[in-house]
Amino acid sequence: LSRAVLAPYNPTAAEALEIALDMGEVTASDVVVDLGAGDGQVLVAAARRGARVIGYEYDGTLCERAAARAAAAGVQELVTVIHGDACLADLGVATCVFVYLVPEGLKQILSKLEEVLSRGTRIVSYMFSIPGWQPVQVRTHKEVAKISLYCPGSILRRTLGPPAYGDLSRLRVGESKIPGAGQGLFASQAFQAGEAICQYAGTVMSLAQLLQRKKAGGGTDYIMGVGLNCHIDAENHPEVLARYINDAGDPWFYNARFDKDKGARRVVVVATRDIVAGEEI
Fold it and tell me: Which whole-number Å values give the CA distances from 274 to 4, 30, 196, 242, in the listed order?
């Protein structure tokens, strides 16, 4: 496929841009790399938040328009436009990557994205999902534009097996043995001590969003804090098997722990001892 087909020009709606930047939590401390920068809409919007921005665009005419847009907005000192192939982009300095490529283009840079993702870089994909990855958050704009956020936990499926939330062949949900606890999570097959069981995933919320939820009287039963400004809400994600894990109330009976990685914004459930088939986690 040609580069124009891998990254077809399609102006992004201003409202969708703000949603994408909010999802990526872009601030003045970030370096945003835009793959498929087009006429610079993302570059300017991120620069207006104080971020340093680097955009890669294969179309020379669009590069000129992107540079002119940045100058007109008065943010040209924060914006660098590179006329080049997005598939060859240097992502080493990126703290957040915005990407607009068709699935075939995403496949070509998958290893590059994996490398930066492992360092804690956030990746926001506009319109197209990254093949084989599980987004931690998906939002839509006017039921047309899909925006997906990826964090390191998004590729956990490679070690746990599909789906990323847990291997359904090794886990099951059933009535908990803990009185009054409702449903619980059980091992269908044995797990060894130190083995990853599943991942706690869901919608990623900032502290401000969490406080707003509480103020509005919303439920917080399925919210797990990973860091001060990172909280994972599994309330609307029944497919997340980890949400069915109950507290036995006595550390003596614990057989798993939640390993929280603040930098990667993920939580992995790990067996603290050997778990036999049929045992509740």
Answer: 53, 42, 12, 18
